[in-house]
Every structure is written in structure tokens, then in C-alpha cells.
Design brief:
Layout (H helix, E strand, L loop, with lengths): L1 E6 L17 E6 L5 E5 L1 H4 L5 H11 L4 E3 L5 H9 L3 E4 L5 H9 L4 E2 L11
Parallel strand pairs: 1-4, 4-5
Antiparallel strand pairs: 1-2, 2-3, 5-6
Amino acid sequence: MKIAVSSTGKELKSTVDQRFGRALFFVVIDTETEEFTVHDNSQNLNALQGAGIQSAKNVMDYGAKAVVTGNVGPKAFNTLQVAGIEIYIGASGTVREAVEAFKAGKLQKTGKASVDGHWI
């Protein structure tokens, strides 16, 4: 299964970005093979609005079936939910640690946004 992890950097040892829509990068990793790709999200970092929606669309385009992040806003949540992408919040530590927590079932699957819009 491919999952997208919000990240502050381009490596598995990078820290999980607590923001989804305004994350610096997305690391998309296949949980079975551990192969991964890195996608720059800087175009959404300073967006006045719509960062969550655009980031969610990008994650869909990357083929991810789940998102692992610290927090997710209402617009991103709604977009991901409509696309059938599962959302796991509360991730911390490195991307690798977040992936391991996901695989071990230790992350919280959310049924709602965890922060208000325009959270920075």
C-alpha cells in the first residue's frame, strides 16, 4: 500500500511535518517494498488559501491510499475523504518511525479535521 507522509525533508530520517497542506515535502512510500519517492510541496507552503485542497489533490495523483501526518485541516480532510484516502494523524518523529507506527496500527485514523483552516 502506498502512503504519503508529510515531511520536513527528503529522507526517511527527516522529521514528520505536523502540517498536511503546508508540509514542505511528501514522502510516498510503498509499505510492502519500502521503495519511496519524494515530492516537493513548496508551492503550497505560502499559499493564501487552498493549500490543503491542492496538497490533497497531489497526494491522490501520487497514488497514495493513506496519509500520515501530524494534523489535517477541514478542506484537506474533506478532499481526501471524498477521494477515499484514509487519514492518520498524530504522527511524530521521523518519516521512518511514522511508517513503522502506521504498519503497527499505532496511529489514530481520524474521522474529522484535527485543526481549523489556515493553521500554521
